[in-house]
Amino acid sequence: MKIIIRKILLLLSLIIIFLLIINFIKKKKNEVKKKKKNKSFYIILIIIFIRFFVYESFIISSNSMNPTLLTGDFILVQKFFYNNNFINNIFFKKFKPERNDIIVFKYPKNNKLNFVKRIIGLPGEVIIYNPYNKKLYIIKKNKHTREKKNIFKIIKNKIKINKLINKKRKFKTNKNVYLSPIKKIYIEKIQNNIHNIVISTGIKNCLHLFSKKYNNKENWIWKIPKNKYFVLGDNRDYSLDSRFWGLISKKNILGKVKYIWLSINYKSKNWFKKIRFYRISKKIK
User: Fold this and answer.
1) Full-prediction pTM beyond 0.70?
2) 64 catalytically annotated
């Protein structure tokens, strides 16, 4: 009888030990699961933070920025570069948009659409575009420059950039037309595409020289106010940009394009050539 009781007690002890071990294992598993959940939670928070405040990915769907950005390029946009939101003011240094920056912004006519273009004109400047010879003139304000109201005759007379380069100081087409000293001739070269942009000193207090009738597409003249920018596509002949729908607001700029992280040629039928490996991790300038 004693032997039977011992065996029963031993069996019960083994069962209790087994249950304790099982319980211990379950607790460990739960702890691991909790840790994993906590890790997943923090990872999700980091991803959300990066997505909304640091970087965001966009896909190029048109050829308006050829050859800098091709259709099928996946780009990384640095979102904290210009934004004025609360998080950026605390954690990041803000930068002013500069000429030549390639940016992603909300389309002025429809905020649900995102466009990518290059900044050409800055606040305080005057943009004059000649659609016939496709030349762009950027006039900067300069207090030392003599003002003349008939400066627009320069565009009517179709002055060429080469002529301006030959005259480094002052240039006159006739006794009535005066152009201020040239500050800089900016030759924009994007691979095989070359665009000529004249950047000259502006006209003193030029605000009153540009009435409302000049601030529109019909005359191809824009005076850029504070926090507004003039943008163009690199592929000028196939780009809808500020020439057609006007200036963009700084508050609508989402960020600056920094890198291409993937590029897919959707037209290629060869799967080995679909991915443009030579463009992966390319830095955008």
Assistant:
1) no
2) yes
